[in-house]
Amino acid sequence: MQNIPPTTPELIERLKKILHVTSDGEVADALSINRPSLVMKKARNTSILNEVVALAHHKNLDLNKLLLSGSDQDAAGDDNEHVSLPDNNGTVAPEIRLCKKYLQEMGLDSESLIAIRKTPLHIHIVDTRHNKITETGIYAVSTVNGVFLKSATTRLDGSVIFPSDTPKIPAEHVVKEEVEHLNIIGRSVLVVGPPE
């Protein structure tokens, strides 16, 4: 039987049990989300996965217990159930260990994932199967100056816009003919770290 990722309300209830708290507000505090925002996320079933992963990393919580149904028996599994991801240089990042079963349920192949550190606290999990920009998202782009994580917005004409992180620098527009020649490593599918 395939596990279905928990809804936000289910995830909040699991967090209450694991953190030994009784209110949604206490969960919001633990996740560093303001309380009204968590109420809206719960009502709309908006993902809090990034915040949960950051909390689990910070407090050394078992993600299996949080993300997989029937995880009480799964949590006792051996290390073969987890995978440490390499970075873009092939060096394994031992601080990032993800459950293979969860990755499979999310449609991700652990063999095609790499970890790229954007800041000292934020690591993007990048799926290397997505080496063409076909939809809006964050992509790992290799240049002569290194590997960069860039937000990319696709346009109807097939061109791509890379907005600048610096307000004084204009966005970069790449025409359709040049998009195919970009060296795209992959698309970011998960961010591990505290909310930005």
N-to-C SSE series?
HHHHHHEEHEEEEEEHE
Helix content: 25-40%
Number of strands: 9
Cα gyration radius (Å) = 18 Å
Taking pLDDT < 50 over at least 5 consecutive residues as the criterion, the unreliable ranges are 71-80
Largest sheet: 7 strands, antiparallel
Structural class: alpha+beta
Strand order within the widest beta sheet = 3-4-9-5-6-7-8
- Integer average pLDDT: 80
| Strand coverage percent | 25-35%
Determine the N-to-C terminus distance. Answer: 36 Å
Which shape, going by the Cα principal axes? globular
What is this entry, summarized?
With 196 residues, the chain is of the alpha+beta class. It has helices at 8-19, 24-31, 35-44, 49-59, 63-67, 71-74, 100-105, 176-179, and strands at residues 82-86, 92-99, 113-119, 122-127, 137-143, 146-154, 160-162, 172-174, 184-192.
Description:
By secondary structure, the protein is α+β, with helices and mostly antiparallel strands. Strand 1 (82-86) and strand 2 (92-99) form a beta hairpin. Helices cover 31% and strands 29% of the residues.
What are its keywords?
alpha+beta; globular; 7-stranded antiparallel sheet
How would the blueprint of this fold be written?
Elements: H1 8-19, H2 24-31, H3 35-44, H4 49-59, H5 63-67, H6 71-74, E1 82-86, E2 92-99, H7 100-105, E3 113-119, E4 122-127, E5 137-143, E6 146-154, E7 160-162, E8 172-174, H8 176-179, E9 184-192
Antiparallel strand pairs: 1-2, 3-4, 4-9, 5-6, 5-9, 6-7, 7-8
